[in-house]
Write a structure and sequence with these properties.
By secondary structure, the chain is mainly alpha-helical. It folds into 2 domains: 1-78; 80-125. It has helices at residues 4-11, 17-43, 49-75, 81-106, 111-124. Helix 2 (17-43) packs antiparallel against helix 3 (49-75), helix 3 (49-75) runs antiparallel to helix 4 (81-106) and helix 4 runs antiparallel to helix 5 (111-124). The longest helix is centred in the N-terminal third of the chain and has 27 residues, at 17-43. The chain is flat and about 60 Å long.
Length: 125
Amino acid sequence: MISAEETIAGLQDALSSRRRVGSSVELCGAAAVVVLTVMLWLTEDDLPTTTQLGFGAIVAVGLLTIARALRALRRRGSLFARDRVIAGWIATAVAVLLASALALAGHGLLGLPLTLAAAGFLLVT
């Protein structure tokens, strides 16, 4: 069991320079992906619906990544267990979205059951 003093010390704990650099690189990379995807999306004419959905998913994941990196940099503290669980949920949801998109795009017979299993796992956890 963690004592109250250790919890308060953890709240005041500064983010290490290694983690700060990693979050900064993550922020810059996600911002670049979002900007380039939006620019490509806006400049292309007559894109198919599936491509537009794919671009929208890329932008949504990029914005979530930007929000997480900004939160880590602003809080200046390490992530607690609840934050890691939420990050795991986001990662699982993105994986299910990606698997669904790939299964539907390829019309694969094996991809759809795996996607449904992953979605079921997401609902259970």
